[in-house]
UniProtKB/TrEMBL annotation:
This is MFS transporter. It comes from Aquimarina hainanensis. The chain crosses the membrane at residues 7-28, 40-57, 69-87, 93-118, 130-152, 158-176, 196-221, 233-255, 262-283, 289-310, 322-346, 352-369. PANTHER family: TRANSPORTER MFS SUPERFAMILY. SUPFAM superfamilies: MFS general substrate transporter. InterPro entries: MFS, MFS_trans_sf. The keyword Transport does not apply. Keywords: Membrane, Transmembrane, Transmembrane helix. It comes from the Bacteria.
Amino acid sequence: MSGRIIPVIIIISTFCVQVSSGINYIIFPLTMQAQNYTTTWIGIVMSFEILATLLLFKHVSLAVRKLGITQTIVGASMIRMFCIYFLGMNESFIGWLLGVFMYGLATSMLLVVIQTWLNLMAKGKLKGLFLGLYSASLSLGIASGPVVLQFIDDMNVRFLLNSMLPVIPIFLLIGIRQKPSIHTDTTIRLGFIFKYAKIVMLSALLGGVCFFGLPSFLTIYGVANGLSYSESSLLVTMFMIGSVSIGTLVSSLSVFIDRIRIIYACVFISVICAVFLALAVYASLGVALIMLIIWGGCMGGIYATGLGYIGKVFRKEDQISANASFVFMDALGGFLGVCIIGSSMDLIGKEGLTYTIVIAATLYLIFITKRSISNL
């Protein structure tokens, strides 16, 4: 199979993985809200998807070594399918915690394997494009979830359909014979990776706050601002579409422009978008959607640019550690973001969403600015 075709199949598989997650970002919070859970409790449950990654990420390398790429993909996909089906019938808070936790564990393991596979297979000048398309597929998959739901009103049917989607990546990926041999240590060396890629790892942390926090609460945020459920779902969709379109362009440019400068610019623009989102929602839905497209593009650009950086800086033997550490920081940001956003929306109202992200992004800009000045 052609070396250019394999990355394309991997990217399509990533898209399929994320479609089910995109649907979950809508049906999980809305189902829990219908069961009279507050946004704080919803935030805690949604954070358990990320908590699984945080607690068990160091064992991802060991699992890949013991199971191999194919068995890891099949096992993780089947766990995802069962969890979605189970949560469609669940009303217990403990059930929500366990189901979302296991779903998050399987999803993170699947994405680490796919991401490392792509980083090793994509080579040459097209690598930046492939990594940009990979980042875009992460967002496009999530963006497609709410679009799919526009045609399905019954919540039980939504859960049933979504439980079938995790099977698709199995058929796409296990047919590829050219699988890389991944040589890796038995544990993930987060400290080592963080030492040599601190700015990029922290950008993944900030990206996690946005990529997990916004999809989890944008629908509720929109409804609180007087939008319909359909209009509120579009907020998530436009954010992800921006990541697909603008994010891919940003990643392609990172081959020619210093990656750290690109990350800085993307974070700065994101702060502006977060500050003016509330005004845009009140003034015009169209303006708010355009702003979310730009914001999503910046976040997608940060993720893909960070992947390109670690793919270039670290040896092949360190790629599992580097990619797993990058996913870990992304997940840590998501965990903190979802918990803080959910609590702040309960304490100070709907604008707790934007306040949390503005503060996080501003702190990152202060850090990267001080570091740049000290290196002069």
